[in-house]
Amino acid sequence: MTRYDGGLLHAIEIYLEGKSNRKFGVLVIDEHSKKAEVTARALEQRRALIFARERGFKIILVELNPAMTWEKRHATNATLTDAVPPGTEVFFKVGFNAFGKVDDTGHARSGNVGRSHLDATLRKAGVNELLVMGQMGNMCVRLTSVGGRERPTGPPIEGAVDFGYQVWICPQIINTDGKDWLDWFDDRGVKCYTAL
Predict the structure, then answer these.
(1) Checking phi first, is residue 36 left (phi over 0); if not, alpha (psi -120 to 50) or beta?
(2) Contacts of 172 (CB under 8 A, 6+ apart)
(3) What one-character-per-residue DSSP string does 57-71 give?
(4) Burial code of 160-179, b = ≥16 C-beta within 10 A, e = fewer?
(5) Do the Cβ atoms of 150 and 97 come closer than 8 Å?
(6) Which whole-number Å values give the CA distances from 111 to 95, 148, 150, 157, in the listed order?
(7) What is 7-24 written as a DSSP string?
(8) Looking at residue 123, what is its pLDDT?
(9) Which residue ranges of the chain lie beneath pLDDT 50?
(10) The model's pTM
(11) Measured distance CA(140)–CA(30) in Å, rounded
């Protein structure tokens, strides 16, 4: 298991010392709320977002495509959006995996062809490291980070590690819904820290 003791944010600071070829992005996945919810997880996520903003990391709020839901939009929790720079990009995903397959209109594709524009957006910003937070740890966060099948009979969909990103996580910024999720990053190169 690739698990590291200690704080994630401190580890990122140490890791970046003297490295000009490494650039972080932050994915905030499905942290939607109709009001500003203040939970322990939201406060830790806010702390991580302030850390990222102060260092100029590319931050992307990943939300469910409004065309896929009965509501107009599942907007990101205001407790978090208040911590990011104005104009922070919102990326609308189709399905669980934000790198998931879509066509030119943004609709989900059947089969293992095409992919969302998330990879191109991150590469355009020079990102090669990803700090990932959000919900749910055993679904959207896992599939976006390491890929896999959204349905047992569906095609595998590539995740961030398949595209060459180094993924960084810690349990305090991921909603596990009380489930054991710490096995999905085993042997995938995901850096999981025990604390923020």
Answers:
(1) beta
(2) 40, 41, 44, 195, 196
(3) -EEEEEEE-GGGSSS
(4) bbbbebbbbbbbbbbbeeee
(5) yes
(6) 14, 13, 12, 10
(7) EHHHHHHHHHTT-SS--E
(8) 93
(9) 1, 103, 106-108, 110-114
(10) 0.86
(11) 8
Q: Which of 177, 83, 98, 84 is nearest to 132 (CA)?
A: 98
The pLDDT value given to residue 158:
83
Residue type (1 letter), 66: P
Q: What is the amino acid identity at position 98? A: A
Which pair of structure tokens corresponds to residue 186?
A: 């085993």
Separation CA 58–CA 75 (nearest Å): 19
Residue at token pair 């595209």: 163
Place of tokens 């990391």: 57
Beta strands in 36-128 (DSSP E): 58-64, 89-93
Which residue, 186, 177, 192, is CA-closest to 30?
Answer: 177
Three-state secondary structure call for residue 158: coil
Tokens of 133: 């937070």
Residue 183 is predicted with a pLDDT of 63
Predicted pLDDT of residue 129: 96
Contact 12, 166 (CB under 8 A): no
What does the pLDDT look like over 114-154, one tens digit per residue?
Answer: 467 889 899 999 999 999 999 887 778 888 988 887 777 77
